[in-house]
Design goal:
Bound molecules: adenosine-5'-diphosphate, magnesium ion
Shape of chain A: flat
Number of helices of chain B: 9
CATH class of chain B: Alpha Beta
Keywords (chain B): ATP-binding, Nucleotide-binding, Transport
CATH topology of chain B: Rossmann fold
Order of helices and strands of chain B: HHEEEHEEEHHHEHEHEEEEH
Number of strands of chain B: 12
Strand content of chain B: 15-25%
CATH architecture of chain B: 3-Layer(aba) Sandwich
Protein name (chain B): ABC transporter ATP-binding protein
Radius of gyration of chain B: 21 Å
Strand order of the largest sheet of chain B: 6-7-8-3-9-12
Oligomer: heterodimer
Helix content of chain A: over 70%
Pfam family, one (chain B): ABC_tran
Largest interface: A-B, 17 and 19 residues
Distance between the termini of chain B: 46 Å
InterPro entries (chain B): AAA+_ATPase (IPR003593), ABC_transporter-like_ATP-bd (IPR003439), ABC_transporter-like_CS (IPR017871), ABC_transporter_ATP-bind (IPR050166), P-loop_NTPase (IPR027417)
Number of strands of chain A: 0
Order of helices and strands of chain A: HHHHHHHHHH
GO molecular function (chain B): ATP binding; ATP hydrolysis activity
């Protein structure tokens, strides 16, 4: 049997099911929904006592209650603000330091060992020092978040710049590019994909360091909510804070993900 | 069919090269052609851990005249690329000197344009933007765009102007790389096996293209190749790099000029002339190949048994 396609009907490219947008979103929601159902069932059937694990309904009530008091909005806003300011500051400094160390052998020799040592310090070790130096104000939290965001960006940028194809850099120089022009024409585009994955790591790390900062010395924010609810035994509020952190982290990462997609089609 | 396509294409190339490029390209870059002078040049690469310092080139003395096309022949790994890189200021000699237009070559000398052995296109730029990278500084946007469009037309890549390097074939990438070097309109054009990755037919077309461009805007060309016929077709003069025999069974370390010959006749040359065939035999012998095509020194009985086994 022969079958001729009319010239106008282009052969439809079948996309695999897993790459369709709707399927991806539904598939991603499947597990959270299952967890929610299991959670609800375990409370209804009395598998765990509600004093150990409050039911979803109780967590929802706690959320609404916090919202009505105005605390929820305030805490989310202040935490997001700290993360964003700290992330931007840390990422910009990380880009500069990474560019210096990645491009200049001298800067590599001078700075890389020290930065490596500072990087090895666990995040919580900074907290007492920052609190003494910067008090309980905003600065101490923002600085800690910035430290957290700095290192992933610094490391990925320095490493990526060191591994830019030397043939391409030589070709750029042979065609008269030098200094900033060479950097923007050859080295920067070559490292854009790794810079963005560094930024995503940095953002995740920023949220991590934020909670560390707020757990130990804050009067507002989601970390503070966690710490105060822990002291008061309010498991429902702890769950509210954890769920909000998950949602906020995922949301900010998704925003960077969109930017990454755009950058990769433009440069890679 | 292929023959007629080739004729029309070469006619179009010739017309284009004779007309537009000469005019548009005269607006930018240098119109001068510079002399290149190598004086007792040597290059030794520093020792890496296991091996001792390795001399690659030694005692290369040569003057390339302004507007001349010089072909550099030699076996693979004998230092052709190294010589070219030194001429362009991409590498520096460990002995002797190179001068362009009577002044020493500077680092990444702006009087040269290099067509690298590999295409070396920027993967995130389109083919057209890659060619534009070659434009001399101070080219106006308008003139630059016209020049790039013409060069793409010449190398037959107009239809692929908007493609990324990853989306074109290796031969196309090499043609784009050649166009980028031509865009520079340099005083000295350094081409490192520019036609190496091309299929036989495209290679002949690109050779003719190079001759057309050279005729329209004569510049000094140093052309590295391992193809004897290509050298004979394109060059005014051919040098053969190789190791000099100092004793019957000993060669001096490092390659130098072992043969130098001027190719007779004006371009474009008859690809089949008897005079060229004679030179061809001599060059092949210099490369260690007998003219009937067998490698010298390889035993003729290679262990394959003769017919009545
Ligand atoms: N940067 C370098 N460091 C060490 N050795 C090199 C370097 N560049 C080239 N060489 C050596 O010099 C020799 C000549 O290389 P090259 O000029 O590329 O040869 P060709 O172009 O004739 O094939 C090769 O054996 C190569 O290993
Ligand atoms: Mg080579």
């Amino acid at each position: 049997m022969t079958e001729t396609l009319a010239p106008s009907t282009a052969p439809a490219v079948r996309r695999p099911l897993t790459s369709r947008r709707g399927v991806r979103i539904l598939g991603g929601l499947l597990l959270p929904v299952l967890i929610l159902i299991a959670w609800q069932l375990s409370s209804v059937l009395g598998l765990v006592s509600v004093s150990q694990l409050p039911s979803p309904a109780m967590v929802w009530i706690a959320t609404v209650d916090l919202f009505d008091r105005g605390e929820l909005t305030l805490y989310v806003a202040i935490s997001t603000q700290r993360v964003l300011i700290g992330f931007v500051a840390g990422a910009v400094l990380g880009l500069i330091a990474g560019a210096l160390v990645g491009l200049s052998r001298a800067a590599d020799v001078l700075f890389a060992p020290t930065l490596g040592a500072i990087r090895a310090v666990p995040s919580l070790a900074w907290v007492p020092l920052l609190i003494i130096w910067l008090k309980y104000g905003e600065e101490s939290k923002i600085v800690l978040v910035a430290i957290g965001a700095f290192f992933p960006v610094y490391t990925t940028v320095a490493l990526a710049l060191r591994h830019v194809d030397r043939h391409l850099v030589e070709a750029g120089r042979a065609f008269g590019l030098r200094g900033v022009k060479l950097f923007t024409a050859v080295q920067l585009p070559a490292v854009v994909p790794s810079v963005i994955s560094g930024l995503r790591l940095a953002l995740a790390q920023a949220w991590l360091f934020l909670v560390a900062a707020e757990l130990l010395g804050a009067s507002m924010g989601l970390g503070y909510l966690l710490s105060i609810s822990g002291t008061n035994g309010r498991i429902d509020r702890i769950l509210v804070a954890i769920i909000l952190l998950a949602l906020l982290g995922k949301l900010t990462d998704a925003i960077l993900g969109v930017f990454e997609k755009y950058a990769i089609t433009k440069w890679a | 069919m292929s023959a007629s396509t080739a004729t029309t294409t070469s006619a179009r190339l010739a017309a284009a090269a004779g007309g537009a490029p000469g005019r548009a390209r005269a607006a930018t870059g240098t119109d001068a052609a510079f002399a290149v002078e190598f004086a007792r040049l040597g290059r030794t690469f520093a020792a890496t851990a296991p091996a001792s310092a390795r001399p690659v080139l030694r005692d290369v003395s040569l003057t390339v005249h302004p507007g001349e096309v010089l072909a550099i022949l030699g076996t693979s790994g004998c230092g052709k690329s190294t010589l070219l890189r030194i001429a362009g200021g991409l590498d520096s000699p460990s002995a002797g000197s190179v001068q362009i237009d009577d002044s020493p070559v500077t680092e990444f000398d702006t009087r040269c344009a290099v067509g690298f052995q590999e295409p070396r296109l920027l993967p995130w730029r389109t083919v057209a933007a890659n060619v534009a990278l070659g434009l001399p500084r101070g080219t106006t946007r308008h003139a630059g765009r016209a020049c790039v469009a013409e060069l793409l037309e010449l190398v037959g890549l107009t239809a692929f102007a908007g493609h990324r390097p990853a989306a074109i074939s290796g031969g196309m990438a090499q043609r784009a790389s050649l166009a980028r070097a031509l865009a520079r309109n340099p005083g000295v054009l350094l081409l490192d096996e520019p036609f190496g990755a091309l299929d036989a037919l495209t290679r002949l077309k690109m050779q003719d293209l190079l001759l057309d461009v050279h005729a329209a805007a004569p510049t000094t060309v140093l052309l590295v190749t391992h193809d004897v016929d290509e050298a004979l077709q394109l060059a005014d003069r051919i040098i053969l790099l190789g190791q000099e025999q100092v004793a019957p069974d000993a060669a001096a370390p490092g390659a130098t000029i072992v043969q130098e010959l001027t190719v007779p006749g004006n371009r474009p040359r008859d690809r089949g002339s008897a005079e060229l065939a004679e030179l061809r035999g001599r060059l092949l012998a210099g490369l260690g190949i007998d003219r009937h095509g067998d490698a010298r020194g390889v035993a003729s009985s290679t262990g394959i048994p003769h017919f009545p086994y």
